[in-house]
What we know:
This protein is of the alpha+beta class and 535 residues long. The chain is built from 15 helices and 18 strands.
Amino acid sequence: MYRKRGLPIVLALVIFTTLFVFGCGMEQSSGEAEPAPGNGAAGQAVEQAEVIRLSGGDWGYPSPYAHYPRGPGSRKMRLIFDTLLTSDSEGNTVPMLACDWEAGADGLTYTFKLQPGVKWQDGRPFTAEDVVFSYEYQQQYPPVNIADFSAVSRVEALDEQTVLMELQETEPFFLDKMRSFTIIPKHIWEGVTDPYSLTTPEAAVGTGPYILTDFSKEHGIYGFVANDHFWGNKPRVKEIQFVPVSEAILSFEQGEVDRIGVTPDILSRYENDPEYRVMQYVTSWANRLYFNMNKRPELADKVLRQAMAYAIDRQELVDLVERGAAVPGNPGVLHPISNELYNPAVPAYNHNLQQAEELLDSLGYKDTDGDGVRENSRGEKLKYQLLATDARLAEVVQMHLAKIGIEAIVQVTDTMTRDARFKEGDFELCINGSGNGEDIEEVTGGKEKGRATSTTGKTIGYQNPELDRLYFAQDKETDPEKHREMMAELQQILAEDLPKLVLYYTNSISVHRPAVYDGWSEDTYHSDSRANFVD
């Protein structure tokens, strides 16, 4: 991981001597509490809405082991399961199932106090033994999203409400890594030897704000009801339903779903109508072009990749494919608007066909037979299979590359097929998009396994020891200025080497009816995010 914000870095400088007191045992909102009437933004008191309906789709069973490894699957799981810690809207580490913690003076121990009175959704008490079990079980059976336990040597329950974690070495940002440590019930999972296949009701028992009541893989249906015994604040929606939708705009206007994403060209039918509220977000969700240097060794020459970058008109992709609702990609990976660590000095590769052709000429690629496709001195053509799910995006990229004598043969598949092939490195060129659009770690040598949404340096045949060194050094750097310098240098390497090319970062536009529910978060564009339904 890399860090965007300065505040966690400052906190890390004092963490070894500071006790963070967030109020274990502080009064929580109960099922009987009556919030102030009226709808409002997330974080404000609102009447509890009866039912919210959103577009469904099969994203796997919402347990930590059986959900699909993309955001919609993870977010549904997060309605049910809690982590040890979490983050607030500013990116700071804050309590979740652990309400207080203290670091030892040597930085090698962390003592966590757990929220009192927490129960699993089947009524059994949550205790420190569940935390210890979760750590040990996940070492043997990694969940879809596993926390980074690399620094941990031992986890022990000191009593029912206290957990001790010992580290092998100091880790300044250890607490950040506990944000993804999902806690599972020992009494359910301790006898399970194939957690990835367990999709019975007990696999969806957590401590979170919602209880799973309905699931249909075939129809993409999910049903959740508020957990009346949730330890935290009272959920703002009693029931959440994910239902099949064939045509989103029609379903929304007929009242079948309560919020949809829209494109700029249809905004006018909503933005001046008081029945609707439009919310817009800048996001780091990005489409990226990946080059498989294992499958096609000539792609290991960064000059060839640079030529492709000059040929692909990223602004035109934004205009034609996203209808203006996106930001052209930064070759240095980080978002140029929303990321404060963005380095504007990296090579931009602004659209320049002449520059692209000169680079290909310098490599000896010529179109000697006049068919429009360049080849090398052995007659091997610059012809690639381009794997994608968005036909329009792939076809525009295909058109751009054709202008410099590179033929891209588009292969359009469904998302799951593309993701499986991407994970295994079964592609030559691939367009993949996801919410981790600023991921740098995926092109380092430190990542062992690819995923549906991210690759590895090994999978695509890319290796740069200096990039690896800088990436893992910045992950432990506590001085904000030094960290910024490291991130600037990392972006410079990424932009010059181009192991992947960010095509664009999407903006998100959502529309809802305030009269139905107006508790949608200003901080996340995902309609299925937990932040929309509980504080």
